[in-house]
Amino acid sequence: MDKILKVANVEKYYGNRSNLTKAIDNISFDVLEGEFVGIMGASGSGKTTLLNCISTIDKVTSGHILINGTDVTELKGDKLNKFRREDLGFIFQDFNLLDTLTGYENIALALTIQGRKPKEIDDKIKEVAKTLNITHVLNKYPYQMSGGEKQRVASARAIITNPKLILADEPTGALDSKSSRMLLEKLGELNKNLKATILMVTHDAFTASYCSKIYFIKDGKIFNELTRGDDSRKEFFDRIIDVVTLLGGDMNDAL
User: Fold this and answer.
1) Structure pTM?
2) How far apart are CA 161 and CA 125, in angstroms?
3) Model pLDDT for residues 168-217, shown as the tens digit of each residue
């Protein structure tokens, strides 16, 4: 399998010499094409900072991040904006849908910016809407949708351009348990059936149990990693809980 993401010796500092905080401490790992990888850690562990650096929202202090062979730490200006539009998909905790656009229009926006033809846009939206069970909300505005529907529309927007990497930041954080399960099952299907490569930050063991691999972050470093292998989701969940227990009190707020 191709290597979609390579994080190499990444460090991120905040502050100055008199008050320096090391948010990421020499982290390295790879994500292969078609993997569904989770990053877990307590509040302040560095997991969100790491995701922000990978997503090009934040800059690394040192080290390199390569996505599909492109070193995103060296991209600037128009090249960086083009890379974000074409190679990355984003799913946020708070959906980030535009309130004045329908579900259809929110999903279409990414393709419209790329200059795709209306017929191609329409075909792609109908296909992804069917996959995510959101055909019935395409003509609704966000305020008319449930939280789960909004997040699935946001997921459709993230995958519609066939990005090399989908980045999910606490995607179930604003959802109830039923909506969370439905979204995670759909992400799992996208990963399995469409070979979508997903990197997800979560504080929740149940959410993480849908991943194929998990990196646990503590004090800016990788503390442990788990690979699901042939485990059932329940078996993998139990192994995740074992690591969380091993991490001790620092992870109490991660469950």
Assistant:
1) 0.89
2) 10
3) 999 888 888 888 898 899 889 888 888 899 999 998 999 999 999 999 99
CA distance 34 to 81: 24
Is the model's pLDDT at 255 over the cut of 60? no
Q: Are 137 and 116 in contact (CB under 8 A)?
A: no
Please name the helix (run of DSSP H) or strand (run of DSSP E) that holds residue 25, with its range, or none: strand 19-32
Q: Mean pLDDT, to the nearest integer, of 223-229?
A: 94
- In this structure, how many other beta carbons lie within 10 angstroms of the beta carbon of residue 70? 14
Alpha-carbon dihedral sign for residues 122, 125, 130, 136: negative
Which pair of tokens denotes residue 235? 């078996």
Question: Is residue 239 a contact partner of residue 231, using CB atoms and an 8 Å limit?
Answer: yes
Which CATH number fits the domain that encloses residue 181?
3.40.50.300
Query: Domains in the chain: how many in total?
Result: 1
Residue 22 CB contacts under 8 Å (≥ 6 apart), including other chains: 11, 12, 13, 220
**Helix ranges (DSSP H) in 99-193:** 103-113, 118-131, 147-159, 177-193
Q: Which domain holds residue 16?
A: 3-254
Burial of 53 (0-12, 13-18, 19+ CB in 10 A): buried
Cα–Cα dist 203/255, whole Å: 6
> Is the pLDDT reported for residue 254 higher than 90?
no
Output b/e per residue, 168-181; b: 16+ Cβ within 10 A.
bbbbbbbbeeebbb
Determine the average pLDDT of the residues in 35-41. Answer: 94
pLDDT tier, 251 (very low <50, low <70, confident <90, very high otherwise): low
